[in-house]
Amino acid sequence: MGGSGGPESRARHRVTRAAAPVGSVLIFCLIAACAGEPEPGVSGGPGVLAASAQLRDVAGPGTAESFSGRVLAASAGAQQQPLRMARLFGDSTQFARVSGIQVIGGRLLVTDRFMSQHLAVIDRNSGRVLRQFGEHGRGPGEFFDPASALPVAGDPSRLWMYDFQNRRLTRISLEQREPASAMLTRPMDVGASVTAMFRTGDRLVANGLFPDYTLLVMDTLGRPVNRLVADPPFTPRATGHSDGRRMLNRNFMTAAPGSGRFALAYQFRSRVDFFTADGQRYGTVAGPRATRPSFEVRQERFRWKDGNEMAFSGAASTERFVYALFCGCRLGEDAPPSRVQIFTWQGDLVHDLALDRAVMAIAVSPDDRTLYGAVEEPSAGVGEWMLPAPRDTRTAARND
Description:
The chain is mostly beta strands. The chain has helices at 242-248, 393-399; strands at residues 56-59, 87-89, 98-104, 107-112, 117-123, 129-135, 146-152, 155-163, 168-173, 185-187, 194-200, 203-208, 215-219, 224-229, 251-255, 262-266, 271-275, 281-286, 295-298, 301-304, 312-317, 321-326, 339-344, 349-354, 362-364, 370-375, 381-386.
């Protein structure tokens, strides 16, 4: 069902959905390259993978002597000229609302929750939309809400796409045009609301809408192994409503492509947690601007109140830095995020960048030179920004 991009291509149909608030947009995590077999879901057969009743909770943060969590001079709250978008990829004939971007070599894999063809491949050099595919639906090879992708071992042109609503993995190709009926699909319902995942060694690590734990660890067949509890911001003592905690502790996960380290940026608390590849939290930092959630529980129902503030709306990473998309916006405000806070893996805040327009999701090139963002103005598509040279944190530390 793919086709070349551009205004001359045949019209794309938009999927009718209720308008989603800024904080509800799912973002791709930057997935670590995978090696080894078996592939997720391939050997597990077609049966639904149910949650185990005997999961083990692994509690307590780890430590790392190198973690510092400093705010380096001239990094936070600096008044600066906004970064100007260099190029816009695609237009409103190809995209309605881009919800996720992933850098894969010289290409971008883009998801759009509101187009009838949910997936697009963009050439990073030319900016041309190479193909669009992934019809809307629940049938074989169709997508309802694609959320994150896992590279197929030994074949960087293929990925397993996790669909949040369909609760399954579908193998896709970035190069070959495949009929939907030929796409390999495997159920992946672990009894919890998983939103994104990445692979580290022989384990899959997933975040999601969990009430009292932070991460779910699975084997490569998608069978739950244990839960990681890393002191989420909102505990039962803060709010006794379990569904409320699911929403309050929602976070965006991003993993370093090679080392397997990963970070969580929280939607309703200005906080970023840092983890080793084996799931030990070794540090936590607060963002330069605090936010305050506003909610209430009435007749056992959790609801947001006017003035509720959101903190982070997305995250991306490279081997050197963690990029957290900050909103700082209130419920009901038409003020999507436009600031990107950049941290080292030691927790040092080295940049607080202002983009010249709002973005809904971000991705970063492995060399830290280019940032990509999901934009809606002047047209829906993917924007490209040239990043400033990363600061030498050792020099900065001596000067601070």
